[in-house]
Amino acid sequence: MNTLKVRRYGPIGIIIVCSKIIMKRILAICLLLTLGFESATLAQSPFSSPDSLLIIQEGVASFYGTRFHKRKTANGEVYDMWEYTAAHKHLPFGTLLKVTNQQNGLEAIVRVNDRLPKSSRRIIDLSKGVAEQLEMVSDGIVQVKLSLLSEQAVEWVRGQYKKVPKDIRLRSFQPAIAFQRDEEELMKLENKAF
């Protein structure tokens, strides 16, 4: 009995009647398709990039508050110590960064709108609002990681420089690899399974 029969079972559904051989083949094909789609979902996407590839710098962060509140920043904006902004030595103005406090794991997203002095040993100065979010106000300075938000952001920042500064790392992402199923190989695997 190598036939496949489909029968209606009232308003509820359909019953498929088939031999064990056909059922095994159907299950094998479903399994292979599932595994194929699972491996396709593991390819890089802009939303699943490993965080380690987006980290561009690690070092000491500090914050600045009342002394600079309502003064102009290097890009011409008026500094507001409660906004989520930051000063960096050379990242382009407008760059969005994820800042992670390495002592407690707290994170904040900031926008670069000011400059640090080139001689500074810190990698970033954060607004007081960000410092409170990261729970670093009492410490004053903490170790942080700076990450860009996506592969596209890495490429955009790289495109802003003639030569990338040595103290930041902008890693390249590999393009996703397309694959094609070989139907003959699938049939061989299916036949070996049964």
Put the structure in a nutshell.
The chain has 194 residues and is an alpha+beta fold. Helix content is 27%, strand content 27%.
Mean pLDDT over all positions = 78
The largest pleated sheet is described as: 6 strands, mixed, barrel
- Low-confidence regions: 38-49
The 3D shape can be described as elongated
> How many strand segments?
8
Strand order of the largest sheet: 3-7-4-6-5-8
CATH architecture of the largest domain: Beta Barrel
CATH class category label of the largest domain = Mainly Beta
Structural summary, described in words:
The two termini are 17 Å apart. The chain has a six-stranded mixed barrel with strand order 3-7-4-6-5-8. Strands 1-2 form a two-stranded antiparallel sheet. It folds into two domains: 40 residues; 109 residues, Beta Barrel (Barwin-like endoglucanases), CATH 2.40.40. About 6% of the residues have low confidence. It has five helices and eight strands. A hairpin with a 5-residue loop joins β5 and β6. By secondary structure, it is of the alpha+beta class.
